[in-house]
Structures are given as structure tokens and as C-alpha cells.
Amino acid sequence: MWLRGLEKVFLGMVVALGLGWAQNRIEVWTHFQGAELEWLKQQASAYQKAKGVQVLISEMPLGDMHNKILLSAPQGHAGDLFLTVPHDWIGEFAQAGVLEPLDRYVDSAYRADVEPVALEAFSFRGRLFGFPAYAESVALIYNKKFVKGAPKSWAEFLALAQRYTTKETFGFLYNVNEGYFNFGFYRAYGVENVFAKDASGSYDPRRILLGGAVGERVLQLLKDLRFRYRLIPEGTNYEVADGAFKSGSLAMILNGPWALGDYKKAGIDFGIAPLPSPPGAVRPWGPFLGVHGIGVNAFSPRKALALDFARFLVSQDNLVAFNQAGGRTPVSKSAVKRLEKDPVVAGFAKIFPLGVPMPNIPEMGKVWAPWNNAIQLAIQRPDSDVKGIVNNLMVELQKALGR
């Protein structure tokens, strides 16, 4: 049992809260749609048959869910469970006290089955604030019409990219303008994350790691992709790169699982792999991970029921079924093992251990605009002052973070 003493906690809470049959229900707030919503409804029905607990499902857009949880949970007007919570909300929600800490409910067997990077994503100041369910990141996605197998080295990658950069085709394109898509290069050159961590393992927003020699090296590499290797022309953004891949004129792209449905519809036979590390890298390329999981309302009067249903949802069988419904890659190692013949799951499962979660503290929201602006300045001209741009970025970030 990976929820230690859950049955005892459940019985104790039932007595303490005076829950009778009329209250033997929980409400789930979800942003799921389509096949994933149908999966949730099926799980709710199965759970009700097995446990006699009615599960009410309230649907809402993900963006609406954020503010509703913050405002409604303390007033007693929110759902008992939230499906799903992006991990970059965790710091804000933990500070607001709206998510139940789960450490006393999980044991070593549960932790051992979840990818460490996913547990890190849902931890804040040393405490776990959700049940991680699935993750996503960017990867090198290649069209097998051009690239028969994933490149194993930067030299091989670069040769392929240049070979297929012609008047009719592109070798390699991606949204070069944004930090999210470029973080893997920072990590390859030695950066642990955007922020350093303090002695307790928490992110310290006073210690920003995007500057110095590593920051200069990354921006120079991005300049080279445009001006030295002539791979990524001016005007390339997400829509341009994504459209080129869908049209079959692009050999390789950095993109995520959210795009794969359209690529399949376009009839593209694609593969998924990590991007090879660039020259001078000190570790493998490793992207940002976005992890989604199940949050438990800290103010719920039906917390034990909510915990039990959450446990039911993140069981191996149900995570496998969730993948089959919507294609998400689970962070449960045992579920991934059962899905190992799925090339998408297998591809991203190799990438997740290389990456790190985006910082889950509110300060991260103030980093994106200055960071993206610095990248765009660096790749604007072949003679751009990379060192000056990086120095200015650090000044802007210090201002944005109030330092």
C-alpha cells in the first residue's frame, strides 16, 4: 500500500467529520475534454460501483481553474480534487494553503515508481503537494522521409540539418525565439535550472543562473544556427516551424507532444529522440519538463474520500488507460513499462530523466519576457553583442524580481 494508513485515516476522518451516506460523494474539478474527459467519467463510474462513492465532475477551462481554486477553496466552494494541476502552480498554491500536503499519505514504494523529476516538480519547500500523473517536454521530432534514424551526435545532426536545407525543404526549424524551447542548451552547458537552490533544496530567486559564460555560449549558439549554419531564417516562429513540419517540407523540429496529433493527421511518419548535445557541452541536452498531477483541496471536508479516489486514478492500470485515451506520457515507471511498445511513450520516457521541471515558484513568471527578449536581440543581427545582451538580461531580471 503506497498510501500509508489511508484506510485508518479514512475511517478516522469519517468519524470526525460525521460523514453519512448522504455526504458520501466528492466533486472533481477538471479541464479535461474529449477522450480524456470520457476516461475520467469511466473511472468515476467504476469507482462509484466499487466504493459506493458518487463522483461529481465539473468541467472548466484550465485558465479558469487557477483563479477559482485560489478564491473558492478557502471559502469552502471548490471541488475536492483538481484534475490536473500544472506543476508551475504548486509554489503559489502551496503558499496560499489550498493544496493538501501528501507526504504522510505516500510511502517509498509509491515514490520509487514515479520519475524523480516529477516528484521534484510537485514538491515545494520539501513537501509533496500532488500526485504526479503525466509530463511533457520538447524533443527532437524528425520526419523519417528525410531522417531514417535519430542523430547520435551534434556533428551528425548538423550534417543532416544542412543537407536538407535547400530551396524546397528545411533541415531544422523550431521556435528559436523563446527560452522555453532553448533551455536544453543551457542545461547542456552546465546550468541546473533558471534559479539555484538553497540549502533546503528550494529555488532561490535571488540566484539567477542564465547569465555569465553559459548564457553567452547559448546565445552564440543560437546566433550560429541562424547566421553561421544558415538553418533558421529570420521570421521563424512556432507557427512557421510547426506548419513546415506538417506540410512535409521540414526534416527536424524541436516540439512537444501537443503537436503530434496534427502530425499524425498530416500523415507524417515521425520519430522522437533527445537532441544531441552541442559542442563543448558538459552534460546531455535536457529540456524543461511540464508535469501535471492531481491536487487535493486542503479545505475539503471529504479529504479522505478525495485521497482515495486520487489513489485510484493514478494506479498503473488507470494511467495506462489514460494514455490510451489521450496519448499522454505517464510519469509512473510501471505504467511506462507496460506502454514501452508505444513509440511516443518510449521516446519521451528517454527524455524526461534528462530534463528538469520548470521552476514552480511564482517568480518564474517574471523571467519569461526579459529572457525571450534577450534571445530575440541576440539572433537579430550577425554582429549582435552577446556579452552585452546577457549582462543586460541579468540587470532586467534583477529589476523584474525586485532585487
UniProtKB/TrEMBL annotation:
Protein name: Carbohydrate ABC transporter substrate-binding protein, CUT1 family (TC 3.A.1.1.-)
Gene Ontology MF, one: maltose binding
Highest taxon of the lineage: Bacteria
Entry-linked Gene3D superfamilies: Periplasmic binding protein-like II
Organism the protein comes from: Thermus arciformis
Entry keyword Transport: yes
GO biological process: maltodextrin transmembrane transport; maltose transport
Family annotation (Pfam families): SBP_bac_8
Gene Ontology cellular component terms for the protein in this record: ATP-binding cassette (ABC) transporter complex, substrate-binding subunit-containing
UniProt keyword annotation of Signal present: yes
Keywords annotated in UniProt: Signal, Sugar transport, Transport
Family: Belongs to the bacterial solute-binding protein 1 family.
Entries under InterPro entries matching the protein: Maltose/Cyclodextrin-bd, SBP
